[in-house]
Amino acid sequence: RTSQLALRQTPRILSIAGTDPTGGAGVQADLKSIAANGGYGMAVMTALVAQNTRGVRSVHTPPVAFLREQLHAVSDDVTIDAVKIGMLAQLDVITEVRSWLSECRPPLVVLDPVMVATSGDRLLEPSAEQALRDLIPQVDLVTPNVFELAVLLGEHPAATWAKVLEQGKRLSASTGVTVLVKGGHLNEANCPDALVNTQGLLARSVVEVALPRISTSNTHGTGCSLSSAMATVQARTGDWAQSLVEVKDWLQDALAHADDLEVGQGNGPIHH
Ligand code: PLP
Fold first, then answer.
1. What is the CATH number of domain 2-260?
2. In this prediction, does ipTM exceed 0.90?
């Protein structure tokens, strides 16, 4: 489906995700990230999350009929160049998004398989994990962190980058989908991320970009921001490897300036 992508200077990007009223993660982070990377941002809320930089207080999931209304309100009117999917909260939400995807077929879909926040709070019901696994073959890029990668494979989280890469290759092989493997949660001096594709759609089967780790605890919403940036830059350039290089460069800057923001007392946001 990626080959049908019509490149646009300002691609129209739809985020389908949960919210963060403090503006650091979820839909709010996606919109900032899309704008910062040259896209026009749109958003459909799967779940309303009462959270701040210290943690999640509660989650409200509107009826799926209303989710469907939001999705069709956008797609009945706007040509969507790319979709980023984030927090899906529960099984019936996944089913609804999947059914919309099969009807509306945007040319590019990036899935961030959100499961648990850094604070330890669950953002996906355990009973929905299999449905999330089953959604992967429907998308163009999946962006798991080391913990999500392990859950998707039914394995233990890997402790080294080499092992994470192996797991990424296994997920790509079993789903046929390109995997953006992320090393940010490892305890290494560098922050490596790699695009892994076992089907040979990339020029190389692994494209890796490692940058020095920025020393900050203000990393709230980094995963959300990264996945929506990838959707945006890919819709502009049509080149996954170039997108990763460009996005990593932007993210490095956003992390480097995170401490300037002084937002909240917990894990604060990055500087979009
Ligand atoms: N809140 C929402 C709505 C999210 O989608 C996510 C992650 O994807 C988070 C919070 C987690 O943010 P973090 O783990 O970066 O604190």
1. 3.40.1190.20
2. yes
